[in-house]
Amino acid sequence: MLKVADVECTVLRSARRSVAIFIERDGSVSIRAPQAVSDEQLAKVVEKKLPWIYRNVALWRELNRNAPNREFVSGESFYVAGQPCILDVRDDTPEPLSLMGDRLVLKRSHLPKAEELLRALYRKIGYERLPSIIERFASRMGVAPGRLRVWELQNRWASCSDCGNLNFHWKVMSLPGDVLEYLVVHELAHIKHRNHTKEFWSEVEKVLPRWELAASWLRDNGAGRSF
Ligand SMILES: [Zn+2]
Q: Does residue 165 have a pLDDT over 80?
């Protein structure tokens, strides 16, 4: 941890070559730095970037206003793989957390672990449901994606490797259906076009003419979203 003025930064050193400052998904500030750079040198970099940091943390807060504050009480609604589901907290259920139709059933004694259970469930359901969504769009777009991973991605929703392997954050399973589809199409389009060029966006638009709605939803609501 490095403190500069009133900004606390988590420092992550690795084999990278340059120093980069990030506003993480949870609004915290982190610095990725090469091994050889000292804390004193980092503090100087942060000091120079303070206006940028303040501006972006404020922007994160602004975007994050719309993030739902989860209480894990019966009746609360969650998206699971793009479908709205209602939380049902009960004593008489065998599983700690299970999805039954459009109900998410949570065992009351497991309430303190609700977030952890939900993360695991989203990951499991991601592996079950994403393949068919990916397949549906991949065949329309004429691309052949590689293997799928659903896991904790640093500060991105999804990514596509050079060889076409797809990575999705487990949090994508908490997004509305059209937003989830947009993320899938976005990554599939990267198999044809690595960068966000005009050709890339027209590829997206061919299958999702209304992609801009999903993208702006993500911009306005995505920042602090987890469940
Ligand atoms: Zn992209």
A: yes
The CATH 3.30.2010.10 domain(s) of the chain lie at 77-221
Residue 133 CA to residue 208 CA, distance in Å, equals 13
Count of CB atoms situated within 10 Å of the CB of 173 = 27
Alpha-carbon span 41 to 16, nearest angstrom = 16
Using the mean position of ligand 1's atoms as its centre, give its distance from the Cα of residue 195 in Å.
Answer: 7
Residue 7 contacts residue 46 (beta carbons within 8 Å): yes
Cα–Cα dist 176/161, whole Å = 25
Q: How far is the CA of 185 from the centre of ligand 1 (A)?
A: 10
In CATH, what number does 77-221 get? 3.30.2010.10
- The model's pTM is 0.72
Q: How far is the CA of 156 from the centre of ligand 1 (A)?
A: 10
